Amino acid sequence: MIAILVGPPGSGKGTQAKVLTGKFGIPQISTGDMLRAAKAAGTLDPQYRAIMDAGGLVPDQAMIDLIDKRIDDADCKNGFLLDGFPRTVPQAEALERLLAGRSLTIDAVLQLDVARSLLEERLIHRRTDKRSGQIYHLVYNPPPPDAELEHRADDRPEAVGKRLDAYEAMTAALLPYYEAKGLLRRVDGVGKPEEVTARVLGALGRAHPEES
Ligand code: AP5
Description:
The protein has 212 residues and is α/β, with parallel strands linked by helices. It has helices at residues 13-24, 31-41, 46-54, 60-70, 89-100, 116-124, 157-169, 174-180, 193-207, and strands spanning 2-6, 28-30, 80-83, 108-113, 126-129, 135-137, 149-150, 184-188. The longest helix has 15 residues, at 193-207.
């Protein structure tokens, strides 16, 4: 299965991706995680680092090159779940070319729908455990006392507004693009994470009736 999670920052893409990858035995490919890993390793282009920290989008071609390499890894042989890519129509068109070159197609695009007023609150209180990668929320899903917590640079209030604006300006254009292809499934992203998971699975079941 090849599926894409689309949604604004804080809509729960990473939270849901972690559950789905366990369930389907396919990897999560998060361009945000890949960029943060390169940043932590000191190998990220300083220009991209500044763009990320300020809440902007890294240039399309850099992201396309990253995905082009990643989807050839052995763990992708049964499919993968894209989280945070594509984010623009040029990225979506490039993805289609990359997949067509490998005789692959997209099964479903899942749009997590959450109102902007809830997103800021989710992002500002998000913390991630450095060791496990587990995502927490200081109020709704508090971390255990022994977690080694990280606060993302782009989760500071001044960057959060810019990320939400970038989503509305660039990424929202993906929705009509995938709707026209009959791939888009809208999922209400509000409620307990496990309730959202049940809706996501329902939407995937509609994309794969034989698996439901
Ligand atoms: P990326 O890492 O992809 O960030 P994002 O899209 O902004 O999404 P987030 O990771 O912030 O949110 P999420 O939807 O995964 O939510 P989460 O599950 O963590 O990208 C970071 C940056 O990298 C970009 O800004 C850009 O600069 C660059 N980049 C990456 N890909 C790119 C691309 N393709 N092109 C160009 N640039 C790119 O949940 C958020 C919080 O809410 C958590 O605290 C969680 O516990 C909580 N939560 C989750 N679900 C629920 C729920 N149901 N109820 C209550 N709380 C919940």
